[in-house]
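Hi! If you just cloned this repository, the fastest way to understand the data is to look at a raw example. We've pasted two of them here, unedited. The first protein comes first, obviously.
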Amino acid sequence: MPKPETLPIETIFVPTKLKKTLNPETVAEIAESMLDIGQQEPISVRLDGDRLVLVEGLHRLEACKALGETTILGVLVPAELAQPKPLLAERPEVEAERIKMARLKQLRLEKEAAEAATAASRGVRQAEAPRIRSAKGDRDNAKASPDRAAKSRSLSDWITQQKGSGNRY
């Protein structure tokens, strides 16, 4: 591991890709920490012609700038070691997990569709053969159903009929 050295901040170039990851809250937290205990971890830079290119330590660099510092502790790393780490989404195990989750989602959607189709077919069968219910009071309304009115009788009529036929109730 190379020895940390003091580097002038104005000579450090920050790639656009790194700038997009800047979180102002993190910069503020690191700046507060630097005020209390100083810079604990050096940044990593590589040489590109006559300028230094930031490899790692964007938030530390921005915290030093916010504090008005003109220099920062940094380590010069060879270009071979400065290759960016593969993004999380580019790693094979992450891709395998993504494929697995996509398949599970597809299976869940297929199951929900099958359940919905089953429920819909049950609903169609019930709609094809609806239960016939008479409106409340039809039994007492001779105009609503003349046959029914003729068949309706009182309990005492039924008992009398049962006695006459020899049935025991």
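Ok, and the second one:
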Amino acid sequence: MTRRIRARTLRLAGRLAAMLIGALAAGAAIAAPAPKRLVLIDDDVIGLNGVPALLLQAPDVQVLGITTTSGSVWRDTATAYALRTLEIMRRSDVPVVPGAVLPLLNSQEATKRWEGLYGRLVFKGPWTDYWPEGTLQSHPGKAAPEEVPPLPIGNPVTRPSGEIAAAFLVRMVRAHPHEITLFATGPMTNIAIAQSLDPSFAANVKELVYMGGSLLPQRMLSSPSAGQFAREFVNSPRREFNIRWDPEAARIMAHAPWPKVTMVPVDPSTATEWTRAYLDSLGDGTPLTAMFRKGLEPGFPMWDEIAAMVWLMPQIVTASETLYIDFETSQTAGYGDTLSWTAAYRPHAGEQAQTVIRAIDREKMEAAMRALYRRPLP
């Protein structure tokens, strides 16, 4: 009798232990946080706005690094902005890796020759030497790539990585194949070099989201600044700066075998604008929002922010379509222009299908951005 009781007790204890282990395992599975979405950012960073701040504030995103390139400013200035942004956001653990200083083929001298034949460009990044009368922008370009002016948001004390951007991109994608979303929100020079170094680079990226190109932007807002930004597309609707700075790199990007590509052309940005009212609505709750209110100049469209928010919150997209995209590199009047076709009319010359964002819900996007900017910093 005692042996039977002891055996029954042992069996019961075994069942209870098994049930407890199962419950603990189930609880652990429920409690385990979802893996974060991995991101690399390639950008001509200027100021606090843009893709880095939004993605760094997103709780389900892990930014593996920021690579910098010349574009709106020289690379070293973009690098300084990226470092300082990370300092303000208390995220100096994220590496900043300097990339290309010059385009693959385009040059300041070639641009001047082009302008002598086909007319002045509205914006040439650090090559800018002329502003049309009444334009919103007021700062001229900088002649020396190594000259980094004092930053309005303060100068960084941290240092960039000693690695080369294209090599860093290749290394990260090899370490995380099919897991990384690559954001390209400046010229495509680093992307093109990475693809040239490793022909499997694009195929091993999970998806590419880029801000660049232009289809047919229309003025959507009545403010004077909105008119100034929209006017450059009236006579050149297919020209956009990120592509025009390095058209050859953009063409390499457009022909690479990405599993998925989302293109954010300049078109939806004409319905957006950094206003003083929106900046004030962010409040001064964190160093990030305080710097936004003090340091960001109102009037500019939300170019790169759209790219970030389309990925973070796809429901803001109100119009999109699938097009085959390429870029003009013939160095004629259309040098750097965006080329697009539906499937029935494409030339089958290596162009790839891309999801092209045509319009977004501005109010929904701004509300989501506000929530991210207001999140407590680490």
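That's it. A detail worth noticing about the second one: Residues 154 and 359 are 35 Å apart (CA to CA).
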